[in-house]
Amino acid sequence: MTDQDRAAFRASVQHAIDTKTKPPGSLGRIEDLAMQVALVQRSLTPRMAQCTLTIFAADHGIATEGVSAFPQAVTRQMVGNFLAGGAAANVFAAQLGIAVQVVDAGVAGPAMAAPGLIDRRVGAGTASFLRGPAMTPAQVEQALAAGTAIAGATSGDALAFGEMGIGNTATAAILAHKLTALPLDVLVGRGTGLDDAGVTRKHDILARAAARVAGTLTPMEVLAEYGGFEIVMMAGAMRATAQAGRVVLVDGFIATVAALAAVQLAPEIRPALVFAHQSAEAGHSIVLEWLQAQPLLSLDMRLGEGTGALLAWPMVQAAAAMLRDMASFDSAGVSSGVDSED
């Protein structure tokens, strides 16, 4: 589709939205969302019938340096909880009729032989990026490719992505810093619930890790030096989903940093990303602003798992239904008031 064709199609979508039986603009952000969905699907009658949540789990070597309030073993325990249907993401997804799948992208310890678990292990957790690269370039490629394959095998008009990995807010903070040059100070937050002293310690560790590699790095180099297996795999899945003409529901801070990486690798995917919510994690609003993203919800959440992405799904469905099914002034025989003197 040429730029001229895209402009013409956008104009036709805007006309369809403006001539629905409502005052122009009266549905606010839902109208913007309807435009976004229509452009992604290239359809004036977009359909949003199915969504699937994929949770990527992996461990981070930086967790061994004391950046989290929880032990690394919690990652493996939470994978079991997801598979048993006991996590918040499972409860929200069940309420909304959304299927959940769980991916072992690189949980510490031996491989898990659990029914229903998708095994795409890149390694038993990354190395500590305080002391050297988190992963090799080959592992970055492997994680991206695994994410691409998972997205391709997952059904849905929109795909939601979540994550689990103790230490991953630290990883996300330094990734955002290295990918954008935003100050590390504004990106480091409490994560799983650190106190003030813990946040200070976390910041100091990340500042030392950031200083380990000076100069400008490519996105692929940043991912190798500081990435997490689940974050890189999620970036690959987001990129592939958007390139396939499907909507990506972006969750909280960590998922947004994965989206940031995906956009830097493939800038053309940005229009397919729906940013579900603004979390309470310190750096999330900063990264959203850098991406010029306006999240749909702000609920003071900071859990991850895809919980915020799930809550945005009904809004995406409503936006598509409005454009597809809502009557126009002409079809309903209702006066638009355009010719009125009032």
UniProtKB/TrEMBL annotation:
Belongs to the CobT family. This is Nicotinate-nucleotide--dimethylbenzimidazole phosphoribosyltransferase. It comes from the Bacteria. The gene is cobT. InterPro entries: Nict_dMeBzImd_PRibTrfase, Nict_dMeBzImd_PRibTrfase_bact, Nict_dMeBzImd_PRibTrfase_N, Nict_dMeBzImd_PRibTrfase_sf. GO terms for molecular function: nicotinate-nucleotide-dimethylbenzimidazole phosphoribosyltransferase activity. SUPFAM superfamilies: Nicotinate mononucleotide:5,6-dimethylbenzimidazole phosphoribosyltransferase (CobT). The active site is at E305. The keyword Transferase applies. It is an enzyme of class 2 (transferase). It comes from Roseicitreum antarcticum. Its EC number is 2.4.2.21. It catalyses: 5,6-dimethylbenzimidazole + nicotinate beta-D-ribonucleotide = alpha-ribazole 5'-phosphate + nicotinate + H(+).
